[in-house]
Amino acid sequence: MSHHFLIFFFIVLSFSNLEFTKSQHPKQQIISSFSISNSSWTPTKNQILLSPNSTFAAGFLPLPSLPNLYTFSVWYYGITKNHITVVWTANDNFPVNDSASLVIKPSGELTLSSSPSGRNLWPSGPVSKATNTTKLILEENGNLVFGDWESFAYPTNTILPNQNITGTVLATKNGKFQFLNCKRLVYKGSPEYYWNTDNAFQKLDDKGKISQENFATFISSDFGDQKPRRLNLDEDGNLRLYSYDQSLDQWTTVWQAMFNLCMIKGKCGANAICIYETSNSSTSCECPPGFRKNSSDSCERKTPLTDLKNSKFFRLDYVNFTGGSNSLLIQNLRLSDCQAKCLAEYNCLGFQFKYDGNNICILLLERLDYGFWSPGYETAMFLKVDNSETDENSEFIGMTTLMETACPIRIKLPLPPEESRATTRNILIISTVFAAELISGVLFFWAFLKKYIKYRDMARTFGLEVMPAGGPKRFSYTELRDATKDFADFIGKGGFGDVYKGTLSDGRVVAVKSLKNVTGGDAGFWAELTIIARMHHLNLVRLWGFCTEKGKRLLVYEYVPNGSLDKFLFQKHWINSDLVESPDMEQEMGERKPILDWNMRYRIALGVARAIAYLHEECLEWVLHCDIKPENILLGDDFCPKVSDFGLAKLKKKEDIMSKSRIRGTRGYLAPEWVRPEPITSKSDVYSFGLVLLEIVAGKRNFDHKNSNVDSAEFFFPSWAFDKVFKEMNVDDILDQRIKHSYDSHAHFDMVNRMVKTAMWCLQDRAENRPTMGKVAKMLEGTVEITEPKKPTLFFLGHDDE
Ligand SMILES: *[C@@H]1O[C@H](CO)[C@@H](O)[C@H](O)[C@H]1NC(C)=O
Ligand SMILES: *[C@@H]1O[C@H](CO)[C@@H](O)[C@H](O)[C@H]1NC(C)=O
Ligand SMILES: *[C@@H]1O[C@H](CO)[C@@H](O)[C@H](O)[C@H]1NC(C)=O
Ligand SMILES: *[C@@H]1O[C@H](CO)[C@@H](O)[C@H](O)[C@H]1NC(C)=O
Ligand SMILES: *[C@@H]1O[C@H](CO)[C@@H](O)[C@H](O)[C@H]1NC(C)=O
Ligand SMILES: *[C@@H]1O[C@H](CO)[C@@H](O)[C@H](O)[C@H]1NC(C)=O
Ligand SMILES: *[C@@H]1O[C@H](CO)[C@@H](O)[C@H](O)[C@H]1NC(C)=O
Ligand SMILES: *[C@@H]1O[C@H](CO)[C@@H](O)[C@H](O)[C@H]1NC(C)=O
């Protein structure tokens, strides 16, 4: 269940319910117009009307499921080799057979009838001006035109570039979903929308921009290139923009309205809870405890509620139901009172309770609709069930414990002592024991508060705040100059530019990164940032906005107070490290950082793995990190890891990253394929993560081991560590010397062992042998078994002095 941790959004690679295999059309007759002088057009004539440059075609298309029934449709003709992508249909709900015909009557009226005497199925409109000389033609943009009539005015579920959408409605074929007023997505029986934009859509262009009212826009992830595109209200209720990728010969999603498909109303039926499967972007409908399935998407009670006195409540974590209009919100009610109220009402099926200052109690009456699971919900759901029900094996109960590793409790770590080695050791043991005591003591206290705080924090960090239309906020240069007091507070040098601390006028503390040498135009830059800003994950640094003005490119990130992981891991090696670039070196040298204990290290490893898995899996491969190293792992005030600089690699070329890394001396975090004629894929990130994982365990840079006990030019720490773990079965030698003595094989063995073994899998020489990042996270979690991998042998660490 832990993948639900990465709940919410993201994206089907290619959603294509409109496509079906092109059937064989022997001797297809191609026409350029259809007029009154032609006799009737029947399906058996096997003719198609092409646009001038053959981008689109129109004609009778057999249904994929029932090939002797037809619809009169327009489809993309010239592009996909294997599929027909329908973009408009005259008679979606009334497919016709061989006896149908399209005719232009002597009166000038265009009609489509299922039989000579059948009624007209053509979407009619103002045909008054049509004369017996009017022709049916297909324009190059896909618009089917007959006099004043045009198919663009009667869209079905697709909008094409340059189509005026104002005043039109899109609907899915199954009739369940609509895009109303070019603004909101609604589920038929529901008065409420499930997606809404303040500024109605006006037009899509072939570069991937959706213009809206008030000059707002949505921009596709591949904005800028002129390609075949289409905006589709898909059968699953999501509105997606697709562009045609010629090299793959398929449509790819480049923008979409809904990220978490479970938030689409009507996904699941009565009483069911929708769960979004992030690994394959699918949804499933599950029953709450006390219920069983009565159809694929709805549930019924096992034991009907009969007696008011004979019922109790199950608390479901992260579940939200709405009773539709049948819910009753009461402010300032204690939990017990809320519960009593629901118990007293026969038609109350459960309630939601919000643990904030307002103690909001929402009674759900009569129906439990649109249930879904999302760790972003601030409220707890209490479901009324018969007393005899048990909550055994319900996945919705006790889920909070799964979140445990996400972010730790607020504790202070012990500072590393300065004394001699012996005392160091004692103090370390004492302080670690003390820390352990502290943690367990604190845990009890937090058991009370945690639930409440977690709900609140998670709602924030899981990013349920909706992105404003048009993407991240655009700041003015003056705003950022004021926020940073004219870039006075320099806090570091990242891979892509200098970083300054600042405070926005609304009080938010931010890190402002001034990008250097970024290629691409303003629009492309914006498009990339829109994607980066959409990445919401507890373990990713949030991008709040940007500024492109006066030739400057600035990014505004959340400020992460504790700095980067390297400062905690490699304190002893400050002088040797390549971080001497920092002008604050002297100051930071003097500043001792606490030593991270094993639990902390494990949480950091897991958090980073999850964040990168999220980038890889949930966001397609749009966002490879390409620069995973301790410097890019920032630590929040709870030592919650936050990965920074993700997505920026897309703004640079591969060679730039390569040479840049060498110059900068980011030694040894690149996968072997960087120097081989092989593509850089998400598996390259897995390799880098493996190296970081080893360093987290060893507390030392991998290349620094060269100078230690085993001294050889051929010494490759991962290979050596491999033998220790899999051959000698002795992890101890790998562990960070500074906290080695606090290592308790009983308490820590499993955790540390998993970290090292996972690292070995990540460090496989060949990319295809490495697990995906999602699998890596599972290995760390301990939810999959870790077998013995091949020994990593590639020596690709210390090339800095070449
Ligand atoms: C209809 O007639 C026009 C001119 O007579 C011709 O160019 C066109 O191909 C015909 N179309 C069909 C469907 O026969
Ligand atoms: C068709 O293609 C030609 C050559 O590429 C181009 O010049 C012409 O403008 C196109 N016509 C339309 C209607 O797009
Ligand atoms: C075709 O459809 C028409 C009208 O729906 C019907 O009258 C006719 O029997 C059908 N013909 C065949 C061959 O199924
Ligand atoms: C069009 O219709 C008018 C009368 O409705 C008729 O006089 C004329 O000849 C027709 N033209 C053609 C091309 O059929
Ligand atoms: C788009 O259509 C609407 C309604 O039909 C119309 O008012 C508007 O002028 C059209 N816009 C353009 C640019 O054609
Ligand atoms: C998605 O993954 C889940 C769990 O791995 C599986 O149960 C489900 O069948 C998958 N769905 C699809 C559509 O592949
Ligand atoms: C399943 O049970 C629910 C709730 O009792 C009911 O609304 C729904 O119609 C049932 N569905 C089927 C297919 O029986
Ligand atoms: C439950 O979901 C609905 C619809 O998405 C939302 O309006 C409501 O605020 C949610 N309830 C809570 C308590 O978060």
Describe what you observe in this structure.
This protein has about 800 residues and is of the alpha+beta class. Among the domains are: about 20-155, Agglutinin, subunit A (Orthogonal Prism), CATH 2.90.10; about 300-395, Hepatocyte Growth Factor; about 565-780, Transferase(Phosphotransferase) domain 1 (Transferase(Phosphotransferase), domain 1, Orthogonal Bundle). The protein has twelve helices and 41 strands. α7 (about 600-620) packs antiparallel against α9, α7 runs parallel beside α11 (about 745-760) and α9 (about 680-700) runs antiparallel to α11 (about 745-760). Bound molecules: 2-acetamido-2-deoxy-beta-D-glucopyranose (8 copies). One 2-acetamido-2-deoxy-beta-D-glucopyranose binds next to loops.
Unreliable stretches (pLDDT < 50, length at least 5) are 1-24, 399-434, 436-470, 573-590, 654-665, 797-802
CATH H-tier superfamily of the domain at 566-781 = Transferase(Phosphotransferase) domain 1
Chain-averaged pLDDT: 75
CATH fold name of the domain at 566-781: Transferase(Phosphotransferase), domain 1
* Share of residues in strands: 15-25%
Q: What oligomeric state is this?
A: single chain
- For the secondary structure, the number of strands is 41
User: Ligands in the structure?
Assistant: 2-acetamido-2-deoxy-beta-D-glucopyranose
Helical percentage: 10-25%
- Estimated structural class: alpha+beta
Shape: globular
